[in-house]
């Protein structure tokens, strides 16, 4: 149960932060957003505020911000329909009444001939009381009314495609950007709580029943040499231990100006990964010393976010190269099932470990969404940049076909990765 809750919370936080980035910047750019959704599938909760319906959906995987655009506008008006209109003093439509569940007075009944809510923003209709055909203009602020609920009709000026290239770029980029911000915040909080592991080869803690404890290593000892090799930093110390194997180590240490020699044989530590693979490495049983500070954790948070982003980007590049080199395997990817299994394992190690894992996932989500795949933010950003460079949008049919191909590609990959995860972890 803990694993399920951890998975829902982690995914919920990542998706909410990502989509909030899109929503906040879109609204500041004047783009109307009819829906902000966390999760997929049937609604289990909804709340409307400022022309946006905030929904939580049943399946805790993904989310979206539905932004007003010509391609996304759903027109409920068909030729021959009889509806009622509420007009303002200029004769413009302010409300299209789709049923009788309303309290409007001074309304006009019509039979729709043609309705265009994408370009001309007009309704051509026959008034039922005198059979005269009339063309009505839809006001800047107008609504469809059904079941006593109002749904704003997006004016042309509030649609995504009507905004400048820069406004659209930042609206799309804001989602991944917020994931990087979330990672920075989590890493920084962890540094304030734990401090930062020092890169210096200084003993911060000695584990019980380990070679280091038996040899008499103490907190504060600095490792100077191992088998005659000068130790430069913590990673260098670890690499020397791995290279020397399970042979005796002659270690020179220094503490408060006193230099002494200790001897020990490293032990093998076996770690089982969530997929069942067992990884072995040699250890002597010491932990990092930690640095602390008042302002430094902020800089450490930036560094950690950048380093993790660089690492993940390099892994993604290697992943794509493996496709052309013929070494690609779906074992190199994790889908929702794989992430759930790992999240369950991480959650069992405590809240701080889960926070660090969430930060890493947030960086990963930010980078993956910036990949130039049409179904993702990165693909949509490419379309916007194309328009900015060539001063005209990509042909609509071409863009639609590319988007469709991107969606199908992502869906196929998700199905294959999920099936691979199920085989790996449960079969």
TrEMBL record:
Coiled coil ranges (UniProt) are: none
One biological process term in Gene Ontology:
proteolysis
A Gene Ontology cellular component where this protein is annotated is: membrane
Looking up Pfam families in the UniProt record yields:
PDZ_6 (PF17820), Peptidase_M50 (PF02163)
The segment(s) forming the PDZ domain are: 191-236
Superkingdom of the source species:
Bacteria
What is the membrane topology noted in the UniProt record heading this document?
Answer: Single-pass membrane protein; Multi-pass membrane protein
EC nos:
3.4.24.-
- Determine if Cytoplasm is one of this entry's keywords: no
What GO molecular-function term can you cite, just one? metalloendopeptidase activity
Q: Where in the cell is it found?
A: Cell membrane; Membrane
Enumerate the InterPro entries for this protein.
PDZ (IPR001478), PDZ_6 (IPR041489), PDZ_sf (IPR036034), Pept_M50_Zn (IPR004387), Peptidase_M50 (IPR008915)
Instruction: Give the cofactors, semicolon-separated.
Output: Zn(2+)
Keywords on record = Hydrolase, Membrane, Metal-binding, Metalloprotease, Protease, Transmembrane, Transmembrane helix, Zinc
Q: Which CDD domains match?
A: cpPDZ_EcRseP-like, S2P-M50_PDZ_RseP-like
* Principal location class: membrane
Which residue ranges run through the membrane? 169-193, 311-330, 350-371, 400-419
Q: Which family does it belong to?
A: Belongs to the peptidase M50B family.
**Protein name per its UniProtKB record:** Zinc metalloprotease
């Amino acid at each position: 149960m803990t694993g399920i809750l951890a998975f829902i919370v982690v995914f919920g936080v990542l998706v909410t932060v990502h989509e909030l980035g899109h929503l906040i910047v879109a609204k500041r750019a004047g783009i109307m957003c009819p829906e902000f959704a966390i999760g997929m599938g049937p609604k289990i909760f909804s709340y409307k505020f400022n022309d946006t319906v905030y929904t939580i959906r049943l399946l805790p995987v993904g989310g979206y911000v539905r932004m007003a655009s010509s391609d996304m506008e759903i027109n409920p008006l068909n030729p021959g329909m009889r509806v009622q209109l509420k007009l303002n003093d200029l004769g413009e439509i302010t409300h299209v009444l789709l049923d009788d569940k309303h309290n409007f007075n001074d309304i006009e009944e019509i039979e729709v001939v043609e309705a265009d809510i994408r370009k001309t923003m007009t309704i051509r209709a026959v008034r039922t009381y005198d059979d005269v055909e009339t063309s009505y203009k839809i006001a800047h602020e107008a609504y469809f009314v059904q079941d006593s609920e109002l749904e704003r009709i997006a004016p042309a000026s509030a649609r995504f495609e009507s905004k400048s290239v820069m406004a659209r770029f930042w609206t799309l980029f804001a989602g991944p950007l917020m994931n990087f911000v979330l990672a920075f915040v989590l890493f920084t909080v962890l540094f304030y709580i734990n401090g930062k592991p020092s890169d210096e080869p200084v003993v911060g803690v000695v584990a019980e029943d380990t070679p280091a404890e038996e040899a008499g290593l103490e907190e504060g000892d600095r490792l100077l040499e191992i088998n005659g090799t000068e130790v430069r930093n913590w990673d260098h110390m670890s690499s020397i231990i791995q290279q020397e194997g399970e042979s005796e180590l002659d270690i020179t240490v220094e503490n408060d100006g006193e230099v002494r020699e200790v001897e020990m044989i490293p032990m093998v530590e076996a770690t089982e990964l969530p997929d069942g693979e067992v990884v072995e490495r040699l250890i002597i049983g010491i932990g990092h010393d930690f640095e602390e500070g008042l302002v430094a954790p902020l800089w450490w948070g930036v560094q950690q976010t950048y380093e993790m982003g660089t690492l993940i980007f390099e892994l993604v590049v290697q992943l794509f190269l493996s496709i052309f080199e013929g070494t690609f395997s779906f074992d190199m990817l994790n889908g929702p099932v794989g992430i759930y299994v790992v999240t369950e394992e991480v959650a069992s190690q405590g809240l701080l470990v889960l926070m660090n894992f969430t930060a890493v996932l947030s960086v990963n989500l930010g980078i993956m969404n910036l990949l130039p795949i049409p179904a993702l933010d990165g693909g949509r950003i490419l379309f916007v940049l194309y328009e900015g460079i060539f001063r005209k949008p990509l042909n609509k049919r071409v863009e639609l076909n590319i988007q469709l191909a991107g969606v199908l590609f992502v869906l196929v990959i998700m199905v294959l990765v999920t099936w691979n995860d199920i085989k790996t972890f449960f079969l």
